[in-house]
Amino acid sequence: MSRNSRQFRNGPVTPVTALVANTLGEIFELDGFGAVGMAGIEMTLLQPGNTVSLPYGSELMYLPDRRPVLYNLATGKTEVVFEDPYDPGKPIFPVASFNSPGFVTSYVPAYAEDDGAGYLPLFSYAAVGWLDDGFRSAVFEVDREPRQDLRQMPLDKVSKGVVALQKRLPQNRLARHLEKCALTYGCPAAKNLFIGRYEAPLPTSPYCNARCLGCISKQPANGISHCQDRIGFMPSPEEIAEIALVHLGRVPKGVVSFGQGCEGDPLMAAEVILPAIHLIRARTDKGTINMNTNGSLPTVLETLFNAGLDSIRVSVNSFRESCYLKYFRPKGYGFSDVLKSIELGIRKRKHVAINYLNSPGFTDSPAEYAAIMDFLDKHPIHQIQWRNLNFDPLQYWHIMATGEGQEKPVGMRKLVNDIKTRFPRLRHGYFNPPIDRGQILS
C-alpha cells in the first residue's frame, strides 16, 4: 500500500485529501486529513470509487459558521478540525461543490455547526476533495446532454441573440424580462432562448400557492435570501405566444416551458397560459409545450391538457405526505391533488415527469426508498428528473425528521440503480425531453 492508503473494513483504500478554506475564503488541501462525506447519520471517507472528477462548470464554496469533520490519517479517526494548521489560532471552514446540471449528490461535506449558525444560502452542497492533480466530487451522472453546458453559451453569442430579439419583438415585456435572466442572472435556460437551442423558458406567474422552504425567487424574513427576482407582472397571451413561436420556429424538436425559477407556479396564471397555448397551436404543431408545476390544481391542468399542453414535470421532495407538506407548505391544496394531477397526465397520455428534489440522507433513507417504490408501482410515469435540493442539508434533515428514528441510508447510487432495475422503462435524467406529439404514451 502507498503511504496515503489505510486499511478499512472493506480493504485498502486511497483517501481523497481534505479541502478547507481560511478566513479569506482561500481554499487549500489539508495534508494528513482525508475528506469525509455525510448523508444523514452516515459518514464515509471520500475515495476514487465514490467520487468523480469535478464536472466542468461546477463551483467551489466554503460554508461559514461551520467546522469541517475530517479523517485524521495518523489516528484513523474522524474529528472536528477547528484551526488552520498553517495559521494557528485562525479558524478554517468546510468546502463544498455546487455541481453542474446532470449530476446527483451522493454525500454532502461532513461538518459541525457553530452555535447560532444561520441557514446556508440556497445551493446544493456536495462533498469535495483533492486527489493527485484534480478536484473530486461526491456525485454521479444521470444526464449527459449538454443543454446547460456553459462552454456552449458564449456571452457574445447570447448578447447578439438579445439584440436580435429586441429588434424582432421590441414591445414584448416577457422578452425584456428574459434578457435580465440571461445577462444579469446568467440563467442557462434564458441563454438557450437567445442562441436558439433546446428548451426556452416562458415565465408567467408572479403568484404561488406553495411556500417552499427552498424557493429561490421569494423568501420571508427568515434569514434566507432568495437568489433572483420573481417576475413582477403577468405577460399577455400574445407576448407568451410570440416568444414560443420564435423558439419553436427555429429549433428542431424545440421545447418551451412554463414554470421557471423566476416565477411562482404557472397553474396560478392559467388565465393567460390557456389562450397562449391556443395561439401557439393555431400557428404551429411543432415542438413540445411543457409545464413545470407543483401539480396543485388538477381541474385547471385538465383544461390546459385539452388545449394542447404536451407534458408536465411535477415537483416533489418526498412521496410521504407528511414530509411533502413540511417542504412545500401548500396553501389551499393537498398532496392528494398532486397525485391527481400526475394520474390525470398519465390518463391523458401526456408525458409525465417527476422533478425529484433529492437530498442524500433523506431521499435514500429506508422510509423514503419504500415510499418511492410504492409510488412508482402505482403511477407509471415516464421520467424522473433528479434535482439536488438547494437547501441547508443539516437543517433540512432536522425539519424532515418524522419521529421514527434515523436509519442508515441505502445510498443514492443504490436508490437510482434499484429503480432502474425494478422499472426498466422509466427514464432518468435532468432535462425536459422533446415529445413526439404523434406518439401515444402508455
Write up what this structure looks like.
The chain is an alpha+beta fold and 442 residues long. It contains eleven helices and 24 strands. The protein has helices spanning 155-168, 173-183, 188-195, 237-250, 270-283, 298-307, 321-328, 335-347, 366-378, 393-400, 412-422, and strands at residues 6-8, 11-13, 17-21, 27-34, 36-39, 42-45, 52-53, 59-62, 66-72, 77-80, 93-98, 103-105, 108-109, 111-113, 126-131, 134-137, 139-141, 199-201, 255-258, 288-293, 311-316, 351-358, 383-388, 427-429. The radius of gyration is 23 Å and the shape is globular. The chain starts with 5 loop residues before the first strand and ends in a 13-residue tail after the last strand. The relative contact order is 0.11. The model is unreliable at 1-11 (pLDDT under 50).
